[in-house]
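cache lookup: miss for this entity combination. No prior model stored, computing from scratch. Input as submitted by user K.M.:
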Amino acid sequence: MERTILITIIVILAGTYLLEVLLSVLNLRNSRKPMPAEIGDLYTPDKRTRQLQYQRTNIRFGILTNTIGLAFSLLMVCGGFAWLNNGLLSFTAVPLWHTLLFFVAYLALSNLVDLPASIYDTFYIEAKFGFNTTTPWTFAKDTVISFLLSLLMQCVLMTVLVLGWQWQPDWLWLSAWVVVSIIMVFLNLFYPKLIVPLFNKQTPLPEGELREAIEAFARKADFKVENIYVMDSSKRSTKANAYFTGFGKRKRIVLYDTLIAQLTTDEIVAVLSHEIGHEKHRHTLRALGSSLMKMLLLFVLLGVILRYDVFAAAIGCYPTFVSKFIVFMILYQPVSMILSVAGNVFSRRHEYQADAFAKEHGMGRQLVSSLKKMTVNDLGNPLPHPLTVFLTYSHPTLAERIRHLES
Ligand SMILES: [Zn+2]
């Protein structure tokens, strides 16, 4: 049994890796196809060459980082986790402390393994193609803050799980789900106020031509302008974006300052109308609902695995809470992937709905030109392979969106 579990773990890790490599190869091949008619004029020949260089660099780099990631995971599974788990037992056998120590060590180690790739990506690849504006100081600050933040979240989650398990193993799925759901709703509501300020400044939309145009549109669409913010994302990258977050009184639309710099007033209003479309269709609320459901499934399955010590033994660990949790998280990967593919199907549908909202409000043509501009500025891939789109894209491709907007 132990052997079967170990083999399953290795097959899952290797399978995920091979799938990623396969998608990379398919994308490379697909990029040689002629451009669809809708976006035939998107790139000038020079820009297209640059876009292909950027795409190829990223694909090669992605394969390299995935290979490092696979090697690290295999090392951990074939001895690393056992060394950490069994070694820490000599410090403490109290499940909560043992689990928290384990996670502090593991997160520090895996962040350290990822760090060189992250530095190379920001200061070499992104810089080479003219996107990077991050200073080493900002990068260092971001790295430390995100590490501490993920550590905090992970420790809170593990505390909830260990205490829930010790209290009533049979009801772990419910106790953990209730507590984690409350935390998630809270984070969803206060994310812009608590988390975003650790990384970015958000300011209300300043007076001027843009604000007037937005106010005029917001009135038409029945949306409060006080909920629109500008974020100083230009301190990291020239890439542009906008997003909608929260619900009820806490909803807000965030426009990147880079978006405002690159697009015309009409185009910005079009992007905004798309985001308002998300709000009108309650997409964030639905996304939150579906993550809560996914969490429930995860806790139910976790409760089952935690009963059997054989899952810890499979990777050479003395049966502890955390070793079984780690094995569970690997075994859960295929389930998580299927759920994420299903989630992407819905997410792409939501994007079409938000686009349709913009179109109904007379912003279709402007939205098309803003999407084109953003893709070109970001050297976005205009020809992703259909399998990549199906499995991993939360947004439809540019050509598909334009086809819908112009139909
Ligand atoms: Zn959208």
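stored under new cache key. The first helix runs from residue 2 to 30.
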